[in-house]
Amino acid sequence: MTDILDQITPDDATEAPKAPETRHWRREDGEAHTLWLDCAETTTNVISEEVLRELDTLLDDAAHARPEVLVIRSAKQGGFAAGADIDGFANLRGEEAVTLLQQGHAVLDKLAALPFPTVAVVHGATLGGGFELALACDHRIGIDGVKLGFPEINLGLHPGLGGTFRLTRLIDPVEAMQLMLNGRSAHDRKAKKLGILDALVPERHVVAAIRAAAGGSLEHGNGGFRASALRTRAARSLAATRMRSESEKKAPRAHYPAPFALIDLWEDHGGDATEMQQAEIASFAELLDSTTTQNLIRVFYLRQRLKAAGKGKDGIAHVHVIGAGAMGSEIAAWSAMQGKRVTIEDTELEPLGDTIRRAADICNAKHLNGIETRDALDRLIPDPDRLGRAHADLVIEAVPEKSDLKEKIYAELTDAMKPGAILATNTSSLRLSDLVDATPDPARFAGLHFFNPVSRMPLVEVVSHDMAAQDTLDRLAAFTTGIDRLPARVADYPGFLINRILAPYLMEAMVMLNEGHTRESLDRAALSFGMPMGPLTLADQVGLDICLEVARSLRDGLDVPVAETPDWLRDKVNEGHTGRKAGKGLYDYNSEDPPRTPEDDADQAVIDRLILPMCNAAVECLRKGVAPEADTVDAAMIFGTGWPPFRGGPLHYARIRRDIPDTLHRLEDRHGPRFAPDPGWADLG
Amino acid sequence: MSRPVYLIDGARTPFLKARGRPGPFTPVDLAVQCGRPLLMRQPFDASAFDLVILGCVNVIQDEMNPARVAALRLGLGEDQVAFTVQINCGSGMQSIDTAFRYIREGSHEIVLAGGTEALSHAPLVYNREATEWFGEMNRAQGPLDKAKAFTDVRPDFFSPVIGLERGLTDPITSLNMGQTAEVLAHRFGIERATADAYAVESHKRLAAAQEQGRLDGEVLPAFGRDGSTHRHDDGVRPNSSIEKLAKLDPAFEKPWGKVTPGNASQITDGASWVILASETAIEAHGLTPIARLVDSEWSALDPAIMGLAPVTAATPLAQRHGLDCDDIDLWEINEAFAVQVLACLAAWQDDDFCRDVLGYDSAFGRIDRGRLNVDGGAISLGHPVGTSGNRIVLHLANAMKARGVRRGIATECIGGGQGGAMLLEAA
């Protein structure tokens, strides 16, 4: 069928010609003088040095032409601008950074000082530098669906192109600080309510809104602004203290300095815009030089890199999930929420009901509106009659970890799946090489290993094996990206990549418990290193039964020694105390909470014993080719386990720290051969 | 042009008893619940449908033209024409009949026809004065006006009636549906004990059909957002007995009425779909029909005896095709009330009635219980009004096939004094 709405909608936002002598701007001289940002050779606008330099000239021309109104908007479908050009500043240091920032500020100051009304029309992602450009205009008109925000904090930075002083003066400064501190975006109505937008309209009313701005009838939508109350330093100090304690709870200052720099900046200079502008530049340049920021910028690139490994079309519209346990349900719910048509089968009806409830909860947690939730749930079809097997482009098997059960299902699938469909297993402890013979088509079989809970764990391991077709792996990686997860392409190895590296962390903690360490001291030491969860809390979270299973598979499959599993652990599992899901494991969740706060002065020897085995296993994985390169190992650990991002990943950490092989030798002498440094250390460089 | 029309497949949700608060599904939710698996088990793509017709009586505000909303939510495409039909309790059969006629005359090849109803979602209805007062409040400008308007409030404004109660009252005669059944019980001399015995049998038959899997594939499980799973019609009471039913008070005409909650149909939520197709579509998609739709008939009479309308709808249908009472192997008569079904059976056996009203020389005949509502009826499984007509046609087709019999009639009485009937033959 012809999509008639699509037919009557123009393909391009504008037909305005390129402005003379620019690469990134189009100019339209009509009723309004409109500058369309349209960055060359990309589908996403970024605010680069060149973009600002060209804008500078265009602003001079505009100042000369004296139009009734100047409009700045984006010619890209996806949004106004995704932020500053990270490539452009990632490698800048000290004075260089200050100079570049000052040049940028001068351009935006010039825009802010123009004697006629200036309007930014913003749509889609309007982030970081893009948001700052919009803030330098007199008015901001938002198109429905716009989201504005400052994600800089995630890179260990704060806004650096005037965002700190412009936003805190435009809206309630406490709200402004919250936006900058948490890095989350304000979506359309929220942004209007906060007073960031003066109007929020559908595209069809943009021209009328611009006309209103030109005629002076578009009022500032300042949302109950209380800046005057915070004009005194004393008042700001009070608010700042609160912000500091909130920030400390989320991420300790020692690991993440940027929020504290931002709070200082506002507390010290919030009363004077000029002062705050200068201080913003100095503070930004200083943060840029810090190791944390450099590592976080690296993590940003690692994410891009994982995504790039999942480019292209997946050819997967319909996913069929076999097994409605916790993992199967999460996979199904998440895929449906991300737009796939999903069927899920189970031998019982009740787990299928649980799947729907879980999906409704996820939609709720992800703030989907009523219609989005309804559509997501309509796409998620409980399928007790297994009808989806024949319709699906991808069948994901997520049944309990028993090879005979999996093999029986694979045999049933042989004549049931449609031609070209892929079969993936979500196994975490079985080897694909042991399963592949039972599959309908080894070339179209691979691992797709999700982490629990899927809605919060961005990584998915795309696991290869000897007989897998490249096309199968490419499609699975593209599928992963398509459902907004990050694919790590890994090889068929005991525990694959993540569990191989993570397991020693958990297993060593068990051994240390045996030696008389307390649960709390071990968990808090790991937290002080920056791990999101201590090893014992994590073991309970993963499930002690699963931990045993993974430990067994490592012991059977690896040619290096691994830590012994204490007998009491097996006893616990046999008694049904399998961790958080059972209400009791290493901790008793009915009566106690695992520790959440890091040890202030943790014993480095304890940290080393927990952390270095992971680095050692990472080196082994790299040597064995489990992941294609060191960056994938680091990225997978950060996005799959929450390995401290500010440390850049286990291999990056090892490279910087340098003494790990020696330390491992010492641990080997004291605690046994499982600490012996992997032969791959020599090649790590 | 008069082409043969076939019933290809169909499915419905379990019928869920209304339990005093809105159930887990809206009318369109119900239609989507059974529609998704039904469409998925077809060998053709959902885009093949020429038309979607859905019967629904109590449409909710958020789902105007529920047929179109359901078609879009089922992924039938933006270009899918879909309309909703309403003839009260016959709506689910009206959708089939409309599809039948379109296909028969040659303008359509394959049509999805259903019925849906969520009686538990029936709105609260405020009286007229209360509605006017709400309007006044909304128009009031400023606190003073609002305060003034507020002083006009009266306590009875907050005593809404459940819209359903009004919906089940005939607007011409002001008789409640149950009262129209009392009229029939009186005129045809149906005893309370006979009605109760009929009701007990309805429950036993449904329970047996569920247990022996005779509803498998026809009733598909539904899944609520709260994680609830619904496998069977949940109004069934396998342990129902004449003694238990005898203890119930009359529902509509106390203290001597014969209609009780135990021998009347249950108020439920549920949806049902059937797929109708031409021979051309059957060949194009390689389909296997369950039954052939032969003909349909609608009739009307005094609203005060609406329950008798199956007789005035089904008999002309049989007559037109030269069929005697015994030529019809299976009957589905929607069980609005036990006394109402029993009154129909009595009328067909009454020489005077059949001569004076139906133009026969003598009685039409006796429809024995062995070929009537063989797997239960609305008394045991409930009567979601817009759905029931669809359900009886679907189940008749399935029951005919399962028993290997040749002919069947599905017929229902319709609030307001009408009746609908369809004649089916083995495909």
Topology, pairings included?
The complex is a heterodimer of chains A (685) and B (427).
Chain A: H1 4-7, E1 25-29, E2 33-37, H2 49-65, E3 70-74, E4 79-81, H3 86-90, H4 94-113, E5 118-122, E6 125-127, H5 129-135, E7 139-143, E8 147-149, H6 163-170, H7 173-182, E9 186-187, H8 188-194, E10 199-201, H9 206-214, H10 233-250, H11 258-269, H12 273-288, H13 291-308, E11 318-322, H14 326-337, E12 341-345, H15 350-365, H16 370-379, E13 380-382, H17 388-391, E14 394-397, H18 403-413, E15 422-425, H19 432-435, E16 445-450, E17 459-463, H20 470-482, E18 486-490, H21 498-514, H22 519-529, H23 535-542, H24 544-557, H25 567-574, H26 604-623, H27 630-641, H28 650-657, H29 660-671, H30 681-684
Parallel strand pairs in A: 2-3, 3-5, 4-6, 5-7, 6-8, 7-10, 11-12, 11-14, 12-13, 14-15, 15-16, 17-18
Antiparallel strand pairs in A: 1-2, 8-9, 16-17
Chain B: E1 5-12, E2 16-17, H1 27-40, E3 51-55, H2 66-73, E4 82-85, H3 91-105, E5 110-118, E6 124-125, H4 128-139, H5 142-151, E7 161-162, H6 163-167, H7 177-188, H8 192-211, E8 222-223, E9 229-230, H9 242-246, E10 268-278, H10 279-285, E11 291-300, H11 309-320, E12 330-333, H12 338-348, H13 351-356, H14 378-381, H15 385-403, E13 407-414, E14 418-426
Parallel strand pairs in B: 3-4, 3-5, 12-13
Antiparallel strand pairs in B: 1-10, 1-11, 2-10, 5-10, 6-7, 8-9, 11-14, 13-14
Structural summary, described in words:
Chain A: Keywords: Fatty acid metabolism, Lipid degradation, Lipid metabolism, Lyase, Multifunctional enzyme, NAD, Oxidoreductase. Chain A: Pathway: Lipid metabolism; fatty acid beta-oxidation. Chain A: One of its GO terms (biological process) is fatty acid beta-oxidation. The complex is a heterodimer of chains A (685) and B (427). With 685 residues, chain A is α/β, with parallel strands linked by helices. Chain A is built from 30 helices and 18 strands. Chain A folds into 3 domains: 278 residues, Alpha-Beta Complex (2-enoyl-CoA Hydratase, Chain A, domain 1), CATH 3.90.226.10; 181 residues, 3-Layer(aba) Sandwich (Rossmann fold), CATH 3.40.50.720; 187 residues, N-(1-d-carboxylethyl)-l-norvaline Dehydrogenase, domain 2. In chain A, strand 1 and strand 2 form a beta hairpin. The radius of gyration of chain A is 27 Å and the shape is globular. Chain B is an alpha+beta fold. In chain B, 37% of the residues lie in helices and 18% in strands. In chain B, helix 3 packs across helix 15. Chain B is globular, with a radius of gyration of 22 Å. The mean pLDDT of chain B is 94. At the A-B interface, helix 15 and helix 16 of A face helix 1 of B.
